[in-house]
């Protein structure tokens, strides 16, 4: 016989299950209403009717399959396993993985659709009311071109740290825009969290062994540009799988400081993810890499945040704020809002020196215009020449190998087609090997492409 306490626990358990089911139903309805691209839905419909599709049992989405890059593989898992993945890894982690997976294949419009789904929350209404009550945070602010402002500040700095949101390729584009001027200011080291710290790492060429996020085409271009300018790449990620969060942050800081131990006057640019470049400890006891570095080295790094004032922001509050006020700002380039001569700390973080505002993304032929990398790359039409064509990739001819194509990072790739039926890639001048793939990721053929 069940006791009174047992009955209560049983009811609570049932209520939790019912709540989970309700949330799942709501999320499913939101997902169905999302404005996914035609080709996204095309792939989803295809995958969902496939039987016997071999998928791994991990609870995460990954671009790696059979020890090679397979950029469509995480979507296969998402289409087949979404309810289970949300239940096992959690809604936040699942959507973070899915956004990154879409960013890897150039579907930034898909990233934005997920951000709309993420706004579904019991606290959304109350946060929106708080934002309305607060009023326009930019009232009385002036704006300065972010690149110009930052380069004025970096001139007398030895260590500069800038962050990214891993699903935001435009953050990598902005960092890439700083490279040449920073090199002229004496910066010679580019330390990146994403670079592999393991012995088989490839730190002098862009491929799968270089690092995880550098497998995203625009991140790959950032690294190619750095190498071309003469930067030395530094992998500073912690290689230990057993370290605590703070041990990882400390190890990262220590590895960056090792550059200065060998070369005391070295100037270093650090490109990291999210909160690693925060200069203060969090309320949860986490001490970020930048804070540890300041303690270890005695150097106060110039820290730059790109994640707060950008599409999706760092959470529901920031995303709602951006949705309400960003469209009212008439800027097409990254800017730094200023009040009283200081970079505006919109959310009172007190964790960074400079806060960059990124404008809403504009699209052409289904592709985000930040793919031009500030005019460095130009829109290039690729004609569909195979009946079963789905996915198009362009590799630098000098990097290409038929046998090693599964390890190579493309200059650009997409499954988005324009109304005229063409695929549009963003490429700089040069010779490329275009790879045509079907929905199963099988190569249908290749073709040399010359971009003038």
Task: Describe this entry's structure for a reader.
- This protein has 452 residues and is α/β, with parallel strands linked by helices.
- It contains 12 helices and 19 strands.
- The chain folds into 3 domains: 22-120, no CATH class; 142-364, Rossmann fold (3-Layer(aba) Sandwich); 377-451, Immunoglobulin-like, CATH 2.60.40.
- Helix 9 links the parallel strand 5 (189-192) and strand 6 (232-235).
- The longest helix is centred in the first third of the chain and has 30 residues, at 4-33.
- Residues 15-30 have low confidence and may be disordered.
Q: How large, in whole angstroms, is the Cα Rg?
A: 23 Å
- Helix content estimate: 25-40%
Mean of all residue-level pLDDT scores? 92
Structural class: alpha/beta
Widest beta sheet: strand line-up? 6-5-7-4-8-11
Low-confidence stretches: 15-30
What is the CATH topology classification name of the largest domain?
Rossmann fold
Our count of helices gives 12
CATH class of the largest domain: Alpha Beta
Strand tally? 19
Outline the biggest β-sheet.
6 strands, parallel
Overall body shape: globular
Domain unit count:
3
Compose a concise summary of this entry:
With about 450 residues, this protein is of the alpha/beta class. Helices cover about 35% and strands about 20% of the residues.
Strands, helices and their partners?
Elements: H1 4-33, H2 38-48, E1 64-65, E2 68-69, H3 73-89, H4 91-104, H5 108-118, H6 124-134, E3 142-145, H7 146-154, E4 159-164, H8 169-184, E5 189-192, H9 217-229, E6 232-235, H10 245-262, E7 268-273, H11 289-297, E8 302-309, H12 316-325, E9 335-339, E10 342-343, E11 354-357, E12 363-364, E13 367-368, E14 378-382, E15 391-396, E16 412-414, E17 423-427, E18 430-437, E19 443-451
Parallel strand pairs: 4-7, 4-8, 5-6, 5-7, 8-11
Antiparallel strand pairs: 1-2, 3-9, 9-10, 12-13, 14-17, 15-16, 15-18, 18-19
Helix pairs in contact: 2-3, 3-4, 4-5, 6-12, 8-9, 10-11
């Amino acid at each position: 016989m069940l006791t009174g306490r047992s009955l209560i626990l049983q009811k609570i358990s049932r209520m939790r299950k019912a709540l989970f089911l309700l949330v799942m139903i709501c999320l499913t309805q939101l997902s169905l209403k999302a404005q996914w691209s035609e080709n996204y839905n095309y792939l989803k419909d295809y995958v969902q009717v496939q039987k016997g599709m071999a998928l791994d049992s991990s609870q995460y989405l990954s671009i790696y399959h059979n020890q090679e890059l397979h950029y469509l593989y995480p979507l296969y898992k998402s289409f087949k396993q979404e309810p289970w993945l949300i239940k096992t890894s959690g809604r936040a982690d699942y959507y973070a993985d899915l956004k990154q997976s879409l960013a890897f294949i150039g579907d930034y419009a898909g990233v934005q659709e997920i951000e709309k789904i993420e706004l579904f929350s019991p606290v959304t209404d109350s946060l929106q009311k708080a934002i309305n009550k607060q009023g326009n945070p930019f009232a009385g602010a002036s704006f300065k071109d972010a690149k110009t402002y930052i380069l004025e500040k970096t001139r007398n700095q030895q260590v500069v740290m800038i962050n990214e949101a891993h699903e935001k390729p435009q953050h990598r584009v902005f960092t890439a825009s700083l490279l040449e001027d920073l090199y002229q200011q004496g910066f010679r080291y580019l330390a990146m969290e994403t670079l592999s710290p393991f012995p088989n790492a490839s730190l002098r060429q862009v491929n799968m062994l270089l690092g995880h996020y550098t497998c995203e085409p625009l991140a790959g271009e950032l690294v190619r540009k750095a190498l071309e300018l003469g930067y030395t790449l530094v992998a500073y990620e912690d290689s230990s799988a057993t370290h605590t969060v703070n041990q990882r942050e400390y190890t990262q800081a220590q590895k960056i400081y090792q550059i200065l131990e060998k070369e005391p006057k070295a100037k270093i640019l650090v490109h990291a993810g999210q909160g690693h470049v925060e200069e203060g400890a969090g309320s949860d006891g986490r001490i970020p890499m930048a804070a540890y570095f300041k303690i270890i080295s005695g150097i106060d790094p110039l820290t730059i945040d790109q994640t707060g004032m950008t599409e999706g922001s760092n959470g529901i509050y920031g995303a709602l704020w951006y949705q309400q006020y960003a469209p009212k700002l008439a800027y097409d380039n990254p800017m730094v809002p200023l009040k009283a001569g200081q970079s505006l700390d919109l959310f009172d973080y007190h964790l960074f020196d400079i806060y960059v505002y990124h404008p809403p993304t504009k699209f052409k032929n289904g592709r985000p215009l930040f793919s031009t990398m500030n005019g460095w790359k130009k829109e290039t039409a690729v004609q569909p020449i195979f009946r079963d064509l789905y996915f198009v990739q362009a590799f630098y001819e000098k990097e290409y190998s038929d046998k090693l194509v599964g390890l190579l990072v493309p200059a650009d790739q997409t499954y988005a087609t324009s109304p005229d039926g063409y695929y549009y890639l963003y490429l700089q001048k040069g010779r490329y090997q275009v790879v045509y793939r079907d929905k199963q990721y099988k190569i249908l053929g290749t073709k040399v492409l010359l971009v003038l």
